[in-house]
Design brief:
By secondary structure, the chain is an all-alpha fold. The chain contains 15 helices and no strands. The longest helix has 30 residues.
Length: about 350
């Protein structure tokens, strides 16, 4: 004979309520962020839009600074000296955010990231800022490929599709609608900056997901690397042009603000959506480039959209999720939404 208590909906409701309470408390118990509200997500999207706007502005200001007489290495040195000073203030205001617990990974992040930034600026010095930004922003695809080799992640059909889309987009941009594929020194440098950026964000992923190194510490290492790669430029002649210096300082300020707004926003959105918003940066660079007379043809526009679409697709679906990953591992971003 059935137990009436078992047939009653009250125990079931109590059990469901208890399970819901456990699910709600799980993020806090694991040290994960609570679910964002609609208002917080809307604010995060606005911040990511602002971040893309600022990163695009930074790219075009590099173009202005190098046209006015500064070398790419000099702009790099100015930018990272500013970032280094700013992050020291963060350490002062927020004690405990300096924890260099994995010097090997921090060195990898610093070296690869700084080299990627320098080459990115060198590419902007040689080719339109939007084109250089698109090539540099292929770093999520390279990061997935590097993770396959170094972290043992298996490739997916999605990755192959993403690579085909991104390659077709880049071909359209570099070909300018013609059958002739334009691949000069600026384009090669831009490609290499994307590859090194992929290595840099792979190091970031390891630092944040496995070593729990605070983001300011990671940025501190990045700034030191940028200063080191920029130091040889001290031996070059420095221009006194106020336009060049104003543009270089604008690069430093806009890039730092872009990092801050992106970091603030990223905790409120999923990795796929954050990756999508991040790919507004190449489009922003092209829009800013119009102010300098850098035109955009119809085939270039199609190439931008196709390349950005491939990058987003690969960033979101190009890795193979593991069924047994812990909640903490699943919460860690696969590809950090951060400039390499």
């Amino acid at each position: 004979m059935a137990n009436p208590a078992e047939d009653s909906p009250l125990p079931r409701r109590g059990a469901e309520a208890a399970q819901a309470s456990v699910r709600a408390a799980a993020p806090a118990a694991l040290g994960l962020p609570r679910p964002a509200t609609d208002a917080e997500r809307a604010r995060a999207r606005a911040l990511l839009f602002a971040s893309a706007f600022l990163f695009g502005l930074s790219a075009i200001l590099v173009r202005v600074a190098t046209r006015a007489g500064l070398e790419a290495g000099q702009v790099t040195l100015i930018r990272f000296s500013f970032g280094f000073s700013a992050v020291l203030v963060v350490f002062r205001v927020r004690p405990g955010t300096f924890r260099p617990t994995r010097p090997d990974l921090l060195a990898a992040r610093a070296g690869f990231g700084a080299a990627a930034a320098l080459l990115y600026f060198m590419a902007i010095q040689r080719i339109p800022a939007g084109e250089a930004t698109l090539l540099n922003n292929t770093f999520p695809i390279w990061a997935v490929l590097i993770a396959i080799v170094l972290l043992g992640e298996r490739p997916t059909l999605h990755l192959a599709i993403a690579l085909a889309m991104a390659s077709a987009g880049v071909f359209l941009v570099l070909g300018g609608g013609r059958a002739i594929f334009r691949l000069g020194s600026g384009e090669v440098i831009g490609f290499v900056s994307g590859v090194l950026g992929g290595a840099a964000v792979t190091a970031i992923r390891a630092l944040r997901a496995t070593a729990n190194v605070p983001a300011p510490t990671v940025f501190f290492a990045f700034s030191i690397g940028g200063i080191l790669v920029g130091l040889p430029s001290l031996l070059q002649p420095w221009t006194a042009s106020p336009v060049a210096w104003a543009a270089a300082l604008g690069v430093a300020a806009s890039a730092f603000l872009a990092q801050l707004t992106m970091t603030e926003a990223y905790g409120q959105l999923s990795v796929p959506e954050a990756a999508l918003w991040q790919q507004l940066t190449p489009i922003s660079s092209y829009v800013w480039g119009l102010a300098l007379g850098e035109g955009v043809t119809a085939s270039t526009l199609v190439g931008i959209l196709l390349g950005v679409g491939g990058i987003v697709y690969g960033s979101v679906l190009g890795h193979r999720a593991t069924a047994r990953a812990s909640p903490v591992a699943r919460a860690a971003p696969e590809i950090p939404a951060e400039e390499p």
